[in-house]
From TrEMBL:
<comment type="function">
    <text>Catalyzes the stereospecific oxidation of squalene to (S)-2,3-epoxysqualene, and is considered to be a rate-limiting enzyme in steroid biosynthesis.</text>
</comment>
<keyword id="KW-0560">Oxidoreductase</keyword>
<dbReference type="Pfam" id="PF08491">
    <property type="entry name" value="SE"/>
</dbReference>
<dbReference type="GO" id="GO:0050660">
    <property type="term" value="F:flavin adenine dinucleotide binding"/>
</dbReference>
<dbReference type="Pfam" id="PF13450">
    <property type="entry name" value="NAD_binding_8"/>
</dbReference>
<dbReference type="InterPro" id="IPR036188">
    <property type="entry name" value="FAD/NAD-bd_sf"/>
</dbReference>
<dbReference type="InterPro" id="IPR040125">
    <property type="entry name" value="Squalene_monox"/>
</dbReference>
<keyword id="KW-0285">Flavoprotein</keyword>
<keyword id="KW-1133">Transmembrane helix</keyword>
<comment type="similarity">
    <text>Belongs to the squalene monooxygenase family.</text>
</comment>
<dbReference type="GO" id="GO:0009725">
    <property type="term" value="P:response to hormone"/>
</dbReference>
<dbReference type="GO" id="GO:0004506">
    <property type="term" value="F:squalene monooxygenase activity"/>
</dbReference>
<keyword id="KW-0472">Membrane</keyword>
<feature type="transmembrane region" description="Helical">
    <location>
        <begin position="6"/>
        <end position="29"/>
    </location>
</feature>
<keyword id="KW-0812">Transmembrane</keyword>
<keyword id="KW-0274">FAD</keyword>
<feature type="domain" description="Squalene epoxidase">
    <location>
        <begin position="214"/>
        <end position="487"/>
    </location>
</feature>
Length: 536
């Protein structure tokens, strides 16, 4: 352990030489980005007296903004824009409580975004569980990853819950605003005239085809979006599937901590979603997904996965598998944001950008998108000049990068690192990562801060990966360098780079590390526009 600590210390000192430059640049970028948003947010925005208060139905098409989808992103955006006095029409395919195993984990960074939006009470009264970190297990060893929450008030922590309960709480808040219309319907297409999106066509509950018009349409209809193809260049990768089911009559080893087992062939994640239930998610590579219907999946879980589960969870794990209808499968989709500017329309949430679900960062990215978009829209009295508004809102795609790219890359890299491989270099990388976390203190603080969304900085991400690589090479060279150890160190660096660099490239090197060179970063709100003109 002493040798490991010395290697870690050497790595930290060496990396700090570059770290100073990284962190200084990161602080400068963050300061300028926040100053831009604060300037926009502090400007005068539409007052509530601009809203029709007669209580009469305005009919289809009399909204400032149409939002497609009332999931986490759509509902949060509708509420925040409604509170700012906008007339908002929300069209959601199904207003019943979602019954899904995605979106059950909200990391601390996401909870802070809820506070910014005035929605923190939505995690109350749904039996949500506090999440303070994770414990990683491999080969009988473990590493504690605690979220660095010392500087925050006691209520700030992660939350885990049933997704449907959380979404319904958000929708209830939306429905409380008289200037926001929330209706059930399936949007089939965007209405476009001369290259400008004017609204949407949709079918209501009676299967009647209707049209709705607004100056701006925000599409946030989730990972299965049928509208994204007209607004971005989607390239979806599915490296694995999560096989999920609920365990009862058991407790995790550490209260308020999730558990991640680095099993073979890929990780198993446990997290409490109520006071009596634990969600188990087994990551299964895409090419090896057994069938649920013919019993192959249950057999696979019992014979291949169960022997690797923690002893205190084993009996409940077997019982959950045997419970009829308890096993569900969901794809882990990865899609970098690649929007093309479309006047009159904007993409946010999973419709725009997806990452592997292993870190539970999806809702945090979506809520961060909502905060940025709300602040950009606040100074705008008039949204009718679609081309001008579209150019101004282009800055959204750069301003979202600190949070989105940090969480995206971390999730996508970890799912590869945590997956078993016959490559000895990959095995060395797993042990290196766990060893780095076990050092504690300054070595794990930064990694856990990024993991929980409290340090959204691509430069910090690069700095910590560089530090881990130095630690890993030093660990392999002990006690004395030899040709074989040097070769192993080179292979570790190669494998680590081959995992990390493609994800950095897909997120956009310029937007991530040099946002001040992107012209859209400096876009300011249009000063004047024609009188408000709502389409009917």
């Amino acid at each position: 352990m002493a040798e490991q600590y010395m290697v870690g210390l050497l790595g930290g000192v060496t990396a700090s030489l570059l770290g100073f430059v990284f962190l200084y640049c990161s602080s400068l970028i963050r300061f300028r980005g926040l100053r831009k948003l604060n300037r926009a947010a502090s400007m005068e925005f539409p007052k509530k007296n601009s809203v029709n208060k007669t209580g009469k139905s305005e009919g289809v098409g009399t909204a400032d903004i149409i939002i497609v989808g009332a999931g986490v992103a759509g509902a949060a955006l509708a509420y925040s824009l409604g509170k700012d006095g906008r007339r908002v029409r929300v069209i959601e395919r199904d207003l019943n409580a979602p019954n899904r195993m995605a979106g059950e984990s909200l990391i601390p960074g996401g909870y802070l975004k809820l506070i910014e939006l005035g929605l923190e009470d939505c995690v109350d009264e749904i039996d949500a569980q506090r999440l303070l970190g994770y414990t990683l297990y491999k080969d009988g060893k473990k590493a504690h990853v605690s979220f660095p929450l010392e500087k925050f008030q006691s209520h700030v922590a992660g939350r885990t819950f049933h997704n449907g309960r959380f979404v319904q709480r958000l929708r209830k808040k939306v429905a409380s605003l008289h200037n926001v219309s929330l209706e059930q319907g399936t949007v089939t297409s965007l209405i476009e005239e001369n290259g400008i999106v004017k609204g949407v066509q949709y079918k209501n509950e009676s299967d009647q085809v209707l049209t709705a018009y607004a100056s701006l349409t925000v599409v946030c209809d989730g990972c299965f979006s049928n509208l994204r193809r007209s607004l971005c260049y989607p390239k979806v990768d599915i490296p694995s599937y999560f096989v999920g089911f609920i365990l009862t009559n058991c407790n995790l080893p550490t209260k308020n901590y999730g558990a991640i087992i680095l099993a073979h062939p890929s990780p198993i994640v446990f997290s409490p979603i109520s006071s009596t239930e634990i969600r188990c998610m087994v990551n299964v590579p895409s090419e090896k997904v057994p069938s649920v219907s013919n019993g192959e999946m249950a057999c696979y879980l019992k014979t291949q996965v169960a022997p690797q589960v923690l002893p205190e969870l084993y009996d409940s794990f077997i019982s959950a598998i045997e419970k009829k209808g308890n096993i569900r499968i969901a794809p882990n989709k990865i899609m970098a944001a690649a929007p093309h500017l479309t006047p009159g329309a904007l993409l946010i949430g999973d419709a725009l950008n997806m990452r592997h679900a292993i870190t539970g960062g999806g809702m945090t990215v979506a809520l961060a998108d909502v905060v940025i978009l709300r602040d950009l829209l606040r100074p705008l009295h008039d949204l009718s000049d679609a081309s001008t508004i579209s150019k101004y809102l282009e800055s959204f795609y750069t301003l979202r990068k600190p949070m989105s790219s940090t969480i995206n890359i971390l999730a996508n890299v970890l799912q590869k690192v945590f997956s078993a491989s016959s490559n000895p270099a990959m095995e060395n990388l797993q042990h290196t990562f766990l060893g780095y976390l076990r050092l504690g203190g300054m070595f794990s603080y930064g990694a856990s801060a990024m993991l929980c969304g409290l340090c959204p900085s691509p430069l910090s991400l690069a700095f910590h990966f560089f530090s881990i690589a130095i630690y890993g090479v030093g660990r392999l060279l002990l006690p004395f360098p030899s040709p074989k150890r040097l070769w192993d160190g080179a292979k570790l660096l190669w494998v680590a780079s081959s995992i990390l660099l493609p994800y950095i490239y897909s997120e956009g090197i310029r937007q991530m590390f040099f946002p001040l060179t992107v012209p859209a970063y400096y876009r300011t709100p249009p000063k004047k526009g024609p009188k408000r003109n709502f389409m009917h």
